Amino acid sequence: MPRKPIIPRIDFSDAMPFKIEGVYCKLISLTQRQFAILELEDFERLNRFNWWAAFAENTQTFYAIRYVNGRRVKMQNEVTGHLWTDHANNVTLDNRRKNLREADKTQSSCNRRKPKSNTSGYKGVMWRGNRRHWIAEIAFEGKTIYIGSYKQKIAAARAYDAKAIELHGEFARLNFPRWPITAEL
Fold first, then answer.
1. Would you say domain 113-171 falls under CATH 3.30.70.790?
2. Which of 37, 86, 163, 172 is 20 to 30 A from 11 in CA distance terms?
3. pTM
């Protein structure tokens, strides 16, 4: 079997910084044709290391990692200095300080995407064919909480969102945007 060609990393170190939301940023090249976004002050400190793009099957995303004494270290934790760090905007290669927040393992898991096995298209919503309705459930403190049953899956998804905000606060991963939706357009 022929070997895959090795794709060289792009060196962004000489590229001009760019602004995102008023803060100067730069890109760090990773493996697998990926790159991470860092604020300029963090770029200067972290660009001297070799960074890799590690694909996480459970979240279906890439993380920027390096190895220190045989141990994987995530870039987001190098930026914040925290053991657990969550990406507020769910873009796991956006390692700007504004996007990173300290979180414990439970808080970080609240912010997970819906699983690949999801068939409803909404997090926390499942079809119960034997009863001919949609149900909404949410995980909290290691237990599954039944929210309710609904004729419409959008109603179940909205019920999930309301419960997620109640239980998980700022770490809630929602099906719909957070802004209020009104009947008047």
1. no
2. 86
3. 0.67
